[in-house]
């Protein structure tokens, strides 16, 4: 596969019935210098076959990786970034949810913000004039509570760490993804932690940019199980402990 301008990693678990294949196909036709790296996380439906069909239709733009056992979203994204980009050699990487709550076009547009020293930009579900953000109130409220805890843990004023669209320069991939994550679902928080530890807060902030989405539409029930609500707080505790330990080592 020839080098691509951008590689977007898309983790997939049992997406056969809701994977918007037509949207992916249209985007690939319009953007021949973009690659999509799908990571099938041991789906029990026919997701893998559907991904292979896309790969057959776009052999020079689609990479399909398959987890023999279910590893979770965090590890699937990590695998896509490290292994997928080895095939595409893109200078810019991204990851995006398979349901395209944030569209491919919006993800692609974030690439234009990687200028003037910015190396890590991320979509944010900030509702403003002209934007469309549709999600269940319960998920919005839960997200705000989590965002508050995360801001306190990292001492970082970020409105939305959990929107599933991040775009970054490939030169950051080892810093961000070399080590496995503590949490299967809150790994986005760990990315911010790793940037802060690696560069120190002033430099890390200069490299980041939070971009409000033009459109984000809830595509149905979350893949996060209700039982994870209890595990989530323990994950936050572990992330906080790891962040403080690594920050202390950095200062030494």
Descriptors:
alpha/beta, 9 helices, globular
Give an overview of the whole structure.
With 252 residues, the protein is an alpha/beta fold. Helices cover 44% and strands 19% of the residues. It contains nine helices and nine strands. The chain has helices spanning 21-30, 47-57, 73-88, 104-110, 137-154, 173-177, 187-199, 201-207, 228-251; strands at 6-12, 34-41, 62-67, 92-96, 120-124, 132-134, 165-169, 208-212, 215-217. Strands 3-2-1-4-7-5-8 form a seven-stranded mixed beta sheet, with helices on both faces. Helix 7 crosses helix 8 (201-207) and helix 7 (187-199) packs parallel to helix 9 (228-251). The mean pLDDT is 87.
Q: Quick summary of this structure?
A:
By secondary structure, this protein is an alpha/beta fold. It has helices spanning 21-30, 47-57, 73-88, 104-110, 137-154, 173-177, 187-199, 201-207, 228-251; strands at 6-12, 34-41, 62-67, 92-96, 120-124, 132-134, 165-169, 208-212, 215-217.
Give a topology summary:
Layout: E1 6-12, H1 21-30, E2 34-41, H2 47-57, E3 62-67, H3 73-88, E4 92-96, H4 104-110, E5 120-124, E6 132-134, H5 137-154, E7 165-169, H6 173-177, H7 187-199, H8 201-207, E8 208-212, E9 215-217, H9 228-251
Parallel strand pairs: 1-2, 1-4, 2-3, 5-8, 6-9
Antiparallel strand pairs: 4-7, 5-7
Helix share of residues?
40-55%
- Global mean pLDDT: 87
Ends distance:
43 Å
Name the overall outline.
Answer: globular
Q: Could you give the order of strands across the largest sheet?
A: 3-2-1-4-7-5-8
Helix/strand/pairing category: alpha/beta
Strand content: 15-25%
CA gyration radius, whole angstroms: 17 Å
Largest sheet: 7 strands, mixed
């Amino acid at each position: 596969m020839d080098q691509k301008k951008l590689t977007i990693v898309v983790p997939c678990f049992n997406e056969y019935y809701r994977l918007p294949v037509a949207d992916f196909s249209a985007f690939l036709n319009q953007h021949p210098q973009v690659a999509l790296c799908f990571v099938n996380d041991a789906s029990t439906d026919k997701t893998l076959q559907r991904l292979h069909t896309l790969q057959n239709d776009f052999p020079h733009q689609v990479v399909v990786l398959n987890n023999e056992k279910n590893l979770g979203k965090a590890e699937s994204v990590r695998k896509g970034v490290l292994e997928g980009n080895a095939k595409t050699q893109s200078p810019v990487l991204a990851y995006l949810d398979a349901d395209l709550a944030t569209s491919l076009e919006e993800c692609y547009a974030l690439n234009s913000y990687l200028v003037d020293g910015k190396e890590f930009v991320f979509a944010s579900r900030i509702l403003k004039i002209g934007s469309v953000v549709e999600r269940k109130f319960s998920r919005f409220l839960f997200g705000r509570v989590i965002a508050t805890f995360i801001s306190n843990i990292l001492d970082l004023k970020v409105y939305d760490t959990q929107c599933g669209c991040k775009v970054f320069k490939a030169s950051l991939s080892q810093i961000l993804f070399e080590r496995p994550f503590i949490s299967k679902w809150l790994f986005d928080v760990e990315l911010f932690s790793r940037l802060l530890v690696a560069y120190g807060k002033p430099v890390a902030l200069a490299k980041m940019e939070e971009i409000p989405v033009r459109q984000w539409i809830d595509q149905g029930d979350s893949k996060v199980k209700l039982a994870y609500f209890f595990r989530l707080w323990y994950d936050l505790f572990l992330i906080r402990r790891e962040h403080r330990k690594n920050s202390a080592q950095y200062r030494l």
